[in-house]
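Hallway conversation turned thread

IA: we were arguing at lunch whether anyone had actually written out Aminotransferase end to end. Turns out nobody had. So, for the record, here is the sequence (406 residues) and right after it the structure tokens. Reply here if something looks off.
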Amino acid sequence: MSQTPSAAPRISRRVGAIAESATLAVDAKAKALKAAGRPVIGFGAGEPDFPTPQYVVDAAVAACSVPANHRYTPAAGLPDLREAIAAKTLRDSGYEVAANQVLVTNGGKQAVYQAFATVVDPGDDVLLPAPYWTTYPEAIRLAGGNPVEVFAGADQGYLVTVEQLEAARTERTKALLFCSPSNPTGAVYSPEQTEAIGRWALEHGIWVITDEIYEHLVYDDTTFTPIVRAVPELADTSIVLNGVAKTYAMTGWRVGWMISPVDVTKAATNLQSHLSSNVANVSQRAAVAALTGDLTAVQEMRTAFDRRRRTMVEMLSAIDGVHCPTPQGAFYAYPSVEGLLGRTIRGVTPTTSAELAALVLEEAEVAVVPGEAFGPSGYLRLSYALGDEDLAEGVGRLQTLLGEAR
């Protein structure tokens, strides 16, 4: 008598193991509650609240009427945009790259995915400083790699050291993810720290995948240091990830890029030719306008972010049990809430930051992302890329609720 074979899983193990983007999930839940009539204030999404600069929009409108933009174009990107990215890299980062080292991608996330897919093999370890952006470990796993977390807490300003990286290095270590300014913490590595990490990676033949999408958003006397400028010899074993989303308030236009050695760029382009082909041409034309224009609009946005940053840190730091290092870049605060865990708030005693975030959403109608999305529990991420009034109201609600902790 034949046996009925067991049913195969409907979803592949590879895709079934992917966790939903926690930041997008929080943002979606906040928007759904708001649509249902609840006065929710969302600190979840890493998205500037400003409109895209008008000169960029005008370039896109004009591009819509050009028939060439209605057709397929090279998978690696419009030649004009690849040239503009190369010129922008020289202008902003201080070193030269050729246009054929540039691959234009559908937003920064595609650049992240393709970078790992192109240089990581199954079984390779990738060092991942934590707290980390929620997409990094998933992209590493999709490439078959093993994310190896290297944690630096609030006491270190969320900055890992060479000694920590060396302690985590094995013969399987293939790459290091380096993100400065950081999402989720807003931490920025100094020129000296950046160079030390770069030289350590060079010494051990470790690829550096460096995410520089927040390069223009630094505050006070902080400076952004491109790791390839700090250690020029890394150019042959590095992949630079970037895009227009954060700098130019263009999250919805979906234009990112990766810059890498020519052989890596060619291999990643082959992948993209099957995955998605070219980025929408109208968006690419808008990106050309953004990158070749001046940075006035960017400076105005940074001024607003800086003001909101100081307000948020001051208000969060006034809450007993909250420790909030001052972020030096990006547009996120990443307070430690370990001092609140195990204390009772309105009859509930949260023991993790995920439980605390759920309580905050229910009781204060404020959406924040718990630390579990970015590494260890005990932290919250709050974006200050929202209006001044909403920011003050939202953090004020947190002060009221969390001030009841006993």
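OS: looked through it. The CA atoms of residues 152 and 160 lie 5 Å apart.
IA: good, adding that to the notes. The first strand starts at residue 41 and ends at 42.
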